[in-house]
Amino acid sequence: MAKVVIVSGSPTPTSRLHGVIDHAKAQLERAGIHTDWIKVRDFPAEDLLYAKFDSESIVKANALVEQADAVFVATPVYKASYTGVLKAFLDLLPQKGLTGKVVLPLAVGGTMSHLLAIDYALKPVLSSLGAHNILQGVYVLDKQVTWGENGQAILDEEISTRLAQAVSDFVQEIQWHTSKPARQNA
Length: 186
Fold this sequence. Notes:
The protein is of the alpha/beta class. Helix content is 44%, strand content 21%. The chain has helices spanning 16-30, 45-49, 56-67, 84-92, 117-128, 157-178, 180-185; strands at 3-8, 34-39, 70-76, 102-109, 133-134, 138-141, 145-147, 153-155.
């Protein structure tokens, strides 16, 4: 079974970003992909701030990334970039920690002015970590996510369609990536 690790850079326990991730995670699981979710905000602050590479939480998170076939990196956009808490975690990954991984970036922001935060802020860092298969990112406007009475995120039709297509493409890339050894032996 293919494995995806979701890395959430939201500093809040509940957010529109987490609502969008819930939708993507459900689609991944329906496709038979095992998911783990790293919520960077749950790490001890000292581990992130003091770059404690040997902390138990960082070692466990890095092991999840290492064992994953793909990584789904999600962040809100603050000040035209991804969050500092996400950057602190990415800095604690091994230098080539994303080598051989399929990567799907996602960002949620308040304005279309920050649309390029994925391409100009996040993708260069992912690339520097060894990721070569970085898919087209998904940018979501805050207003495209509302909350239902049961506390579940409701995506407007346009973003629901784009997210579903991006996750479908992600699944296809993961399946192709994980079938490489079988193809090479054929």
